Amino acid sequence: MKQSPEQRKLLEQTALKYHQSIGLAEGYLTSRGLSLQDVEQFKLGVVEEPIVGHEAYRGRLSIPYITSAGVVDIRFRSIDSTEPKYLGIPGATTHLYNVNAYFQATDWICLCEGEIDTITLTKLGYPTLGVPGVKNIKAHHYRILSDFDRIYVFADGDQAGRDFAKEMARRIAGVIQINIPEGEDVNSLFSSNNHHIITERIEVAA
Asked: How many C-alpha atoms does 200 have within 13 Å on its Cβ side?
């Protein structure tokens, strides 16, 4: 559903409000190998004082989806053991995460599942788009990705991750599957100082 200017403005204001409390997530980010400076460009935040209707997101990490037109969505991630891990705004349209990477990339781009992995690969210097859950990818996302000669798809080290990569390869030409060791994902490798595995596998696949 297309957003009105008023809705877009409210999302912008909300993302900014939550971003001002990002310091509350410093411990969580450190545990993921990330600093407050690393996530500054992504305008992550914490829902310390929720706006009306956002009470269910209190204490969660806010993850705005930023485009050239502004903030188009916000997702909310648990930073403790609270379930479910992710919550979204009801009725929100699904978007790719970090779409600015589309304009920064040349003939290749990286793709992974989840925002934290996307931020991690960006920190490592790779232009990366994120999918907010395998089941949320849409037909027009495939068309966007088909603009690239090579798409390095990072498959989490589980069956769901491998299935995700296989489905992408079935749908788009140029997909190169980057397999992550069993039980790991991009960020877990990075935060355990094993990011050389990521670099090595991209170099081998290139």
From this structure: 9
CA distance 44 to 61: 7
Q: Global pTM?
A: 0.94
* Tally of residues, the chain: 206
User: What is the span of the domain harbouring residue 181?
Assistant: 100-205
Same domain, residue pair 83 and 110: no
The mean predicted confidence, pLDDT, of the chain is 93
- 18 with 40, same domain? yes
Read off the CATH number of the domain in which 122 is found: 3.40.1360.10
User: Phi/psi of residue 96, each to 5°?
Assistant: -75, 150
Report if residue 141 sits inside a domain: yes
Q: Which residues of 143-175 are buried (b: 16+ CB within 10 A; e: fewer)?
A: eebeebebbbbbbbeeeebeebbeebeeebebb
Determine phi and psi for 72, rounding to 5 degrees: -110, -10
- Distances 24 to 21, 36, 46, 54, 62 between C-alpha atoms, Å: 6, 10, 7, 18, 12
* Lookup: tokens for 155: 């498959």
Residues 18 and 65 in one domain: yes
Is the residue at 28 inside a domain? yes
Give 61-81 pLDDT, tens digit per residue. 999 999 988 999 999 999 998
